[in-house]
Design a protein that fits this description.
259 residues; 2-enoyl-CoA Hydratase, Chain A, domain 1; six-stranded mixed beta sheet; four-stranded mixed beta sheet; 10 strands; 47% helix; 15% strand; binds (2S)-sulfonatepropionyl-amino(dethia)-CoA
Length: 259
Protein backbone atom coordinates (compact mmCIF):
# COMPACT_ATOMS: atom_id res chain seq x y z
CA UNK A 1 0.00 0.00 0.00
CA UNK A 2 1.43 3.38 -1.04
CA UNK A 3 2.78 5.53 1.78
CA UNK A 4 2.66 8.81 -0.15
CA UNK A 5 0.24 10.53 -2.51
CA UNK A 6 1.34 12.76 -5.37
CA UNK A 7 -0.38 15.63 -7.19
CA UNK A 8 0.58 18.17 -9.89
CA UNK A 9 -1.62 21.23 -10.29
CA UNK A 10 -0.83 24.66 -11.79
CA UNK A 11 2.87 23.76 -12.09
CA UNK A 12 3.02 22.93 -8.34
CA UNK A 13 3.83 19.36 -7.36
CA UNK A 14 2.72 18.02 -3.97
CA UNK A 15 4.02 14.93 -2.21
CA UNK A 16 1.93 14.05 0.85
CA UNK A 17 3.15 11.55 3.42
CA UNK A 18 0.36 9.05 3.93
CA UNK A 19 1.51 6.52 6.53
CA UNK A 20 0.04 7.95 9.74
CA UNK A 21 -0.08 4.53 11.39
CA UNK A 22 3.69 4.43 11.39
CA UNK A 23 4.09 8.19 11.81
CA UNK A 24 5.33 8.70 8.23
CA UNK A 25 8.67 7.03 8.94
CA UNK A 26 11.23 7.50 6.19
CA UNK A 27 11.44 3.80 5.42
CA UNK A 28 13.10 2.54 2.26
CA UNK A 29 9.59 2.14 0.81
CA UNK A 30 8.74 5.78 1.59
CA UNK A 31 12.04 6.99 0.12
CA UNK A 32 11.62 4.87 -3.02
CA UNK A 33 8.11 6.25 -3.53
CA UNK A 34 9.33 9.82 -3.05
CA UNK A 35 12.13 9.34 -5.57
CA UNK A 36 9.75 7.75 -8.11
CA UNK A 37 7.21 10.51 -7.63
CA UNK A 38 9.77 13.27 -8.06
CA UNK A 39 10.92 11.61 -11.30
CA UNK A 40 7.36 11.36 -12.57
CA UNK A 41 6.50 14.93 -11.55
CA UNK A 42 9.58 16.23 -13.35
CA UNK A 43 8.18 14.84 -16.60
CA UNK A 44 5.32 17.31 -16.18
CA UNK A 45 5.70 21.10 -15.92
CA UNK A 46 6.59 21.28 -12.25
CA UNK A 47 8.08 24.59 -11.11
CA UNK A 48 7.78 24.07 -7.33
CA UNK A 49 7.43 20.98 -5.12
CA UNK A 50 5.60 20.99 -1.77
CA UNK A 51 6.33 18.17 0.67
CA UNK A 52 3.73 17.78 3.45
CA UNK A 53 1.88 15.38 5.70
CA UNK A 54 -1.89 14.84 5.83
CA UNK A 55 -3.94 17.76 7.21
CA UNK A 56 -4.18 17.52 10.98
CA UNK A 57 -1.08 15.32 11.35
CA UNK A 58 0.41 15.23 14.85
CA UNK A 59 3.66 13.84 13.38
CA UNK A 60 5.06 15.19 10.10
CA UNK A 61 7.57 12.33 10.07
CA UNK A 62 9.19 10.21 12.77
CA UNK A 63 12.42 10.04 10.78
CA UNK A 64 14.51 7.07 9.76
CA UNK A 65 12.80 3.70 10.19
CA UNK A 66 14.75 2.42 13.19
CA UNK A 67 14.05 -1.16 12.11
CA UNK A 68 16.15 -0.42 9.03
CA UNK A 69 19.18 0.92 10.92
CA UNK A 70 22.08 -1.48 10.46
CA UNK A 71 23.46 -3.20 13.58
CA UNK A 72 26.98 -2.39 14.79
CA UNK A 73 29.77 -2.53 12.27
CA UNK A 74 28.04 -0.71 9.43
CA UNK A 75 27.63 3.03 8.93
CA UNK A 76 23.94 3.81 9.65
CA UNK A 77 24.00 6.93 7.48
CA UNK A 78 26.28 5.97 4.61
CA UNK A 79 26.26 7.72 1.26
CA UNK A 80 23.87 5.14 -0.23
CA UNK A 81 21.50 4.96 2.75
CA UNK A 82 17.95 5.57 1.39
CA UNK A 83 17.44 8.58 3.70
CA UNK A 84 20.78 10.15 2.73
CA UNK A 85 19.95 9.56 -0.94
CA UNK A 86 16.61 11.37 -0.76
CA UNK A 87 18.23 14.31 1.06
CA UNK A 88 20.70 14.71 -1.80
CA UNK A 89 17.98 14.47 -4.42
CA UNK A 90 15.87 17.18 -2.74
CA UNK A 91 18.92 19.43 -2.39
CA UNK A 92 19.90 19.01 -6.02
CA UNK A 93 16.39 19.21 -7.53
CA UNK A 94 16.57 22.25 -9.88
CA UNK A 95 13.31 23.69 -8.52
CA UNK A 96 12.36 25.11 -5.10
CA UNK A 97 11.07 22.55 -2.60
CA UNK A 98 8.82 23.84 0.18
CA UNK A 99 8.40 21.79 3.37
CA UNK A 100 4.92 22.46 4.75
CA UNK A 101 5.22 21.41 8.38
CA UNK A 102 2.32 20.41 10.61
CA UNK A 103 3.25 18.18 13.55
CA UNK A 104 6.49 16.93 15.02
CA UNK A 105 9.60 16.22 12.96
CA UNK A 106 12.16 13.68 14.20
CA UNK A 107 15.75 12.77 13.40
CA UNK A 108 16.43 12.26 9.73
CA UNK A 109 13.07 13.89 8.93
CA UNK A 110 14.51 17.14 10.34
CA UNK A 111 17.32 16.76 7.83
CA UNK A 112 14.77 16.13 5.07
CA UNK A 113 12.81 19.25 6.07
CA UNK A 114 16.03 21.28 6.20
CA UNK A 115 17.05 19.89 2.81
CA UNK A 116 14.00 21.68 1.44
CA UNK A 117 14.55 25.27 0.37
CA UNK A 118 11.75 26.93 2.30
CA UNK A 119 10.06 25.72 5.49
CA UNK A 120 6.61 26.93 6.40
CA UNK A 121 5.16 25.60 9.63
CA UNK A 122 2.25 26.05 12.00
CA UNK A 123 2.33 26.12 15.81
CA UNK A 124 2.18 22.32 16.13
CA UNK A 125 5.51 22.03 14.30
CA UNK A 126 8.49 20.89 16.37
CA UNK A 127 11.93 19.56 15.51
CA UNK A 128 13.92 16.95 17.41
CA UNK A 129 17.38 15.70 16.50
CA UNK A 130 17.72 12.20 17.94
CA UNK A 131 21.13 10.66 17.09
CA UNK A 132 22.30 10.96 20.71
CA UNK A 133 19.01 9.41 21.92
CA UNK A 134 19.71 6.30 19.87
CA UNK A 135 23.51 6.37 19.87
CA UNK A 136 23.85 7.14 16.16
CA UNK A 137 26.94 8.95 14.81
CA UNK A 138 25.37 11.56 12.56
CA UNK A 139 27.05 12.16 9.21
CA UNK A 140 29.20 15.14 8.19
CA UNK A 141 26.84 16.56 5.55
CA UNK A 142 23.90 16.33 7.95
CA UNK A 143 25.73 18.15 10.75
CA UNK A 144 26.94 20.83 8.32
CA UNK A 145 23.33 21.32 7.31
CA UNK A 146 22.27 22.23 10.83
CA UNK A 147 25.35 24.40 11.41
CA UNK A 148 24.65 26.39 8.24
CA UNK A 149 21.01 26.92 9.06
CA UNK A 150 20.96 27.49 12.81
CA UNK A 151 24.56 28.19 13.80
CA UNK A 152 26.96 26.07 15.84
CA UNK A 153 25.55 26.58 19.34
CA UNK A 154 21.89 25.97 18.47
CA UNK A 155 22.97 22.90 16.45
CA UNK A 156 24.95 21.59 19.42
CA UNK A 157 21.98 22.10 21.75
CA UNK A 158 19.67 20.18 19.39
CA UNK A 159 22.10 17.29 18.98
CA UNK A 160 23.21 17.11 22.63
CA UNK A 161 19.78 17.38 24.31
CA UNK A 162 17.79 15.37 21.68
CA UNK A 163 14.89 17.47 22.95
CA UNK A 164 12.12 18.75 20.62
CA UNK A 165 12.38 22.45 19.68
CA UNK A 166 8.87 23.89 19.44
CA UNK A 167 7.68 26.10 16.61
CA UNK A 168 8.42 29.55 18.04
CA UNK A 169 12.05 28.92 19.06
CA UNK A 170 12.51 26.89 15.87
CA UNK A 171 11.40 29.89 13.83
CA UNK A 172 13.73 32.14 15.85
CA UNK A 173 16.62 29.71 15.22
CA UNK A 174 15.96 29.87 11.48
CA UNK A 175 14.44 26.39 11.10
CA UNK A 176 11.22 27.91 9.79
CA UNK A 177 10.99 30.64 7.15
CA UNK A 178 7.43 31.36 8.24
CA UNK A 179 5.31 30.37 11.25
CA UNK A 180 1.61 30.73 10.46
CA UNK A 181 -1.69 29.68 12.08
CA UNK A 182 -2.72 26.18 11.03
CA UNK A 183 -5.83 27.46 9.25
CA UNK A 184 -3.61 29.64 7.02
CA UNK A 185 -0.85 27.05 6.50
CA UNK A 186 -2.05 25.63 3.19
CA UNK A 187 -3.11 29.00 1.76
CA UNK A 188 0.16 30.68 2.74
CA UNK A 189 2.25 27.79 1.36
CA UNK A 190 0.49 27.55 -2.01
CA UNK A 191 0.34 31.35 -2.41
CA UNK A 192 4.13 31.40 -2.09
CA UNK A 193 4.46 28.43 -4.45
CA UNK A 194 2.26 30.18 -7.01
CA UNK A 195 4.37 33.36 -6.82
CA UNK A 196 7.50 31.27 -7.43
CA UNK A 197 5.95 29.54 -10.50
CA UNK A 198 5.65 33.00 -12.13
CA UNK A 199 9.43 33.64 -11.92
CA UNK A 200 12.19 32.39 -14.19
CA UNK A 201 12.73 28.66 -13.61
CA UNK A 202 16.23 28.82 -15.11
CA UNK A 203 17.35 31.69 -12.89
CA UNK A 204 15.83 30.02 -9.81
CA UNK A 205 17.39 26.66 -10.62
CA UNK A 206 20.87 28.20 -11.06
CA UNK A 207 20.59 30.31 -7.89
CA UNK A 208 19.49 27.23 -5.89
CA UNK A 209 22.53 25.27 -7.13
CA UNK A 210 24.88 28.22 -6.49
CA UNK A 211 23.65 28.46 -2.88
CA UNK A 212 23.99 24.67 -2.44
CA UNK A 213 27.58 24.73 -3.71
CA UNK A 214 28.53 27.79 -1.64
CA UNK A 215 26.88 26.45 1.53
CA UNK A 216 28.75 23.14 1.25
CA UNK A 217 32.07 24.76 0.27
CA UNK A 218 34.02 23.67 3.35
CA UNK A 219 37.54 22.48 2.51
CA UNK A 220 38.09 19.28 4.49
CA UNK A 221 41.51 17.69 4.06
CA UNK A 222 41.49 13.95 3.34
CA UNK A 223 43.18 13.28 6.67
CA UNK A 224 40.51 15.31 8.50
CA UNK A 225 37.75 13.46 6.67
CA UNK A 226 39.37 10.14 7.57
CA UNK A 227 39.59 11.26 11.21
CA UNK A 228 35.88 12.12 11.23
CA UNK A 229 34.98 8.77 9.69
CA UNK A 230 37.18 7.01 12.23
CA UNK A 231 35.44 8.82 15.08
CA UNK A 232 32.02 7.91 13.66
CA UNK A 233 33.11 4.27 13.41
CA UNK A 234 33.91 4.11 17.13
CA UNK A 235 30.25 5.02 17.67
CA UNK A 236 28.57 2.70 15.20
CA UNK A 237 30.86 -0.15 16.34
CA UNK A 238 29.91 0.50 19.97
CA UNK A 239 27.73 -1.40 22.39
CA UNK A 240 25.88 1.87 23.00
CA UNK A 241 24.74 2.00 19.37
CA UNK A 242 23.34 -1.55 19.64
CA UNK A 243 21.74 -0.65 22.99
CA UNK A 244 20.14 2.49 21.52
CA UNK A 245 18.42 0.53 18.76
CA UNK A 246 17.45 -2.33 21.07
CA UNK A 247 15.96 0.03 23.65
CA UNK A 248 13.94 1.81 20.94
CA UNK A 249 12.54 -1.44 19.60
CA UNK A 250 11.79 -2.67 23.14
CA UNK A 251 10.09 0.71 23.85
CA UNK A 252 12.24 1.40 26.93
CA UNK A 253 14.79 4.10 27.79
CA UNK A 254 18.33 3.19 26.69
CA UNK A 255 21.07 2.61 29.28
CA UNK A 256 24.28 3.95 27.71
CA UNK A 257 27.66 2.97 29.23
CA UNK A 258 29.94 4.92 26.92
CA UNK A 259 31.39 1.68 25.53
O1 LIG B 1 4.67 -0.34 17.75
P1 LIG B 1 3.96 -0.12 16.43
O2 LIG B 1 4.17 -1.21 15.42
O3 LIG B 1 2.54 0.34 16.58
O4 LIG B 1 4.71 1.14 15.75
C1 LIG B 1 4.74 2.37 16.43
C2 LIG B 1 6.18 2.83 16.45
O5 LIG B 1 7.10 1.80 16.71
C3 LIG B 1 6.35 3.30 15.02
N1 LIG B 1 7.46 4.25 14.91
C4 LIG B 1 8.63 3.96 14.33
N2 LIG B 1 9.09 2.82 13.77
C5 LIG B 1 10.35 2.86 13.28
N3 LIG B 1 11.15 3.95 13.29
C6 LIG B 1 10.71 5.11 13.85
N4 LIG B 1 11.50 6.19 13.83
C7 LIG B 1 9.40 5.13 14.42
N5 LIG B 1 8.66 6.08 15.05
C8 LIG B 1 7.49 5.52 15.34
O6 LIG B 1 5.12 3.95 14.70
C9 LIG B 1 4.06 3.37 15.51
C10 LIG B 1 3.38 4.47 16.28
O7 LIG B 1 4.37 4.99 17.14
P2 LIG B 1 3.98 5.50 18.60
O8 LIG B 1 5.25 5.76 19.32
O9 LIG B 1 3.00 4.54 19.22
O10 LIG B 1 3.22 6.87 18.27
P3 LIG B 1 3.03 8.13 19.22
O11 LIG B 1 2.78 7.68 20.63
O12 LIG B 1 2.03 8.99 18.53
O13 LIG B 1 4.45 8.86 19.23
C11 LIG B 1 4.91 9.44 18.02
C12 LIG B 1 6.42 9.69 18.16
C13 LIG B 1 6.97 10.17 16.81
C14 LIG B 1 6.65 10.76 19.25
C15 LIG B 1 7.09 8.37 18.59
O14 LIG B 1 6.67 7.36 17.66
C16 LIG B 1 8.59 8.48 18.55
O15 LIG B 1 9.21 9.07 19.44
N6 LIG B 1 9.18 7.87 17.50
C17 LIG B 1 10.65 7.89 17.33
C18 LIG B 1 11.10 9.21 16.78
C19 LIG B 1 12.62 9.17 16.60
O16 LIG B 1 13.38 9.10 17.55
N7 LIG B 1 13.01 9.21 15.34
C20 LIG B 1 14.47 9.26 14.96
C21 LIG B 1 14.86 8.04 14.19
N8 LIG B 1 16.31 8.15 13.90
C22 LIG B 1 16.72 8.88 12.80
O17 LIG B 1 15.93 9.45 12.07
C23 LIG B 1 18.17 8.98 12.56
C24 LIG B 1 18.80 7.61 12.40
S1 LIG B 1 19.01 9.87 13.81
O18 LIG B 1 18.56 9.26 15.08
O19 LIG B 1 20.42 9.74 13.59
O20 LIG B 1 18.52 11.23 13.66
Amino acid sequence: MAVITTQLQDDIGTITFNNPEHRNILSKQMVDEIMQSVGALQKGRMRVLVIRALKGSKVWSAGHDVHELPLPGRDPLSYNDPLVTVLRSVQSLPIPVIAMIEGSVWGGACDLALSCDILIGCHSASFCMTPAKIGVPYNVSGILHFMNIMGVNFAKEMFFTAEPLSAEPAAKAGLLNHLVDVENLEGFTYDMATKITRNSPLSIGVIKEQIRLLASAHPLSPITFERVQGLRRTVYDSKDYAEGIKAFLEKRPPSFTGE
